[in-house]
Specification:
The protein has six helices and six strands. By secondary structure, the chain is α/β, with parallel strands linked by helices. The chain folds into two domains: about 30 residues; about 140 residues, 3-Layer(aba) Sandwich (RbsD-like fold). The mean pLDDT is about 90.
Length: about 190
């Protein structure tokens, strides 16, 4: 009788220790899911495969997620200017591409009373883009160019937490080691050799 009581006792104690151990572990160990891959790492990984005619868009928070194949949308979780600086730095690190930057023409006309912070944003944007060629066009025209390019070429859209309208910056990648002047000379030489 004493043996049977001891075995039962041991089983009950073992079960209680296991349950208690699980509860203690839950208290001290909070599961934290792994962080999503960094958007910078994803852009950096894709840039070597990108070339002229690919696009990177640094978009405001209301920019839509597009369903077209070849367009990747990533939420950065950070500010517009910070994201733009990071993207331009990643592009500068590549020798094979350079940026052609497009801004929305509408941004020039957005009033401070309608969009608090727009004056400061425009000033910061001008500073960040001082070394890049910038073209200004109506938003719909830039979107049309982007849509046309996305039929054939990959596009990355980086959504930021910006809440001022017409602040998206569209970057069309161009060849970093060839320019219009060299292309014109090449065409002239080819015509002369005919």
């Amino acid at each position: 009788m004493k043996e049977e009581f001891s075995v039962k006792h041991c089983i009950i104690i073992a079960l209680l220790v296991a349950i208690l151990g699980t509860q203690v572990a839950r208290y001290f160990y909070k599961y934290t899911p792994p962080p999503p891959p960094s958007w910078r790492a994803e852009v950096k990984a894709k840039l070597p495969a990108f070339g002229h005619r690919n696009w990177i868009v640094v978009a405001d928070s209301a920019y839509p997620s597009q369903s077209r194949e070849g367009i990747t949308t990533i939420a950065t979780g950070q500010g517009q200017i910070e994201t733009l600086k990071d993207v331009l730095q990643l592009i500068r690190e590549c020798k094979h591409v350079k940026p052609i930057v497009y801004e929305d023409k509408e941004l020039e006309f957005v009033a401070e009373e309608d969009a608090k912070g727009v004056l400061g944003y425009r000033a910061e944007l001008k500073t960040v883009l001082r070394d890049s060629p910038v073209e200004t066009e109506a938003h719909e025209n830039i979107i049309a160019k982007l849509d046309e390019a996305a039929k054939t070429f990959n596009v990355i859209i980086l959504k930021t937490d910006m809440t001022i309208p017409y602040t998206s910056v569209f970057i069309q990648l161009d060849c970093g080691y060839w320019d219009d002047e060299k292309q014109a000379r090449l065409k002239k030489t080819m015509l002369q050799k005919k």
